[in-house]
Amino acid sequence: MSSEPSGEYDVIVIGGGPAGENAAAYAIAGSDRTAAIVEQELLGGECSYWACMPSKALLRPGHLLAAARAMPGIDAKGLDVEAVLAHRDRIVHNHDDSGQVDWAEHSRIAVIRGVGRLAGERLVEVGGRTLRARHAVVLATGTRARVPEVPGLRDALPWTSRDATNLHEVPGHAVIVGGGVVACESATWLATLGSEVTMLVRGKALLANAEPFARERVASALAEAGVRVLFETEPESVTRTEPKDTGEGRIHGGAVTVRTRGAHTESIEADEIVVAAGRGPATVELGLAAVGLADGYVEVDDHLSARDVPGDWLYAVGDVNHGPALTHMGKYQARICGDVIAARAEGRPLDGARYAATADHEQVPQVVFTSPEVASVGLTEEAARRAGYDVDTVEIDIAVAGSSLARENYSGRAKIVVDTSADILLGATFVGPEIGELLHAATIAVVGKVPLDTLWHAVPAYPTVSEIWLRLLEARRS
Fold first, then answer.
1. pLDDT tens-digit map of 17-63
2. Full domain range(s) for residue 132
3. pTM, full prediction
4. One short Pfam family name for this protein (predicted)?
5. Which sign, positive or negative, has the C-alpha torsion 322, 324, 328, 332?
């Protein structure tokens, strides 16, 4: 199927990451409609090979080692770096996407290799061939790492997130530019694998959108792990001895010298520099002008239809529409998008919640897999007040029977943000080991607008860390 594409499909998706795959699958589910995914790299996209999956494969061994060392009776000596990297390679299937292609073909989705480009209404060009969509074209091209305009930085061939997640050589000393999720997670696994790490953070805190206590705990933990975090500091210039494109995840040449400016002015010598300073839409080659759009993010409505393109045939899902840059949210949008396409193709009304993306506004869940983990959903206190809500908050340490059993000297903290007028949760944040597993309960409470009086009857099992829910409710009552 993938080698001999036809010229016409009901749905054409440009971009074969998880969001694109979901959009195609949902749009044709239970029907005789046809779909094609146009992908220029690997089917499965950034998440499968260069982001979520390899990064978590690198982080998990360190988390388990820390847990073992915090439990009496376990002799936990250290990590086998080669084995960790080999495990990561298995997780990303050594960049072989044949399994994903098999899934697509068994799902009746054609896989077309090449760069997809809009050529007009319902038209997509791929390698000189023009394809036509009967019902819909879905843009799911995601984003690419940004490299700041710092003198010498591009010439130094810095690592981006793709190199960091697919490293094959561990730098003796790595300088990370950035203080967001990618920067913090990269610093965590690089330090665990033996790198000396220096972070250059332009702002005054890590994880700028998180609750203050979460930022502080991550910063403290990184410092305890030996990471040097320089706040209000950024690179002024970069030079490198004999830069060389040695391949993804390999040291790109000789020594790097980073001259900094801001609160800390110095020259830092390193083996590698990692740029984790944000991402931008991957739309340069997408031909947006052919349908009257400017290059950049594609604005959509809650049905995921492109706002400025008439006819309800063009959709955008995932990072490319400037929504939350999270795989699970891209897949969420894609499921709704696929259902909308199917309903419109069959002439059905778009009635009901399933046809509108609402969770990507104020109900987004996210886990930052640092050590400790940060798990959050919905609005922080600052964001809720900025949005005009009257709020009450509860913030307490996680100290329950389940946490004391989980490890010695367990350290965690939790906070809830309550809409006082409706007595429902607007947001929740948890920080601690393995805390991501608590998040879905909070997500259900936020999305379901569950009254706090009702949450009293959601009894946490004993002895688990989730008993913190009872402690949060008790703290607010008192």
1. 999 999 999 999 999 999 999 999 999 999 999 999 999 999 999 99
2. 8-44+97-144+281-355
3. 0.95
4. Pyr_redox_2
5. negative
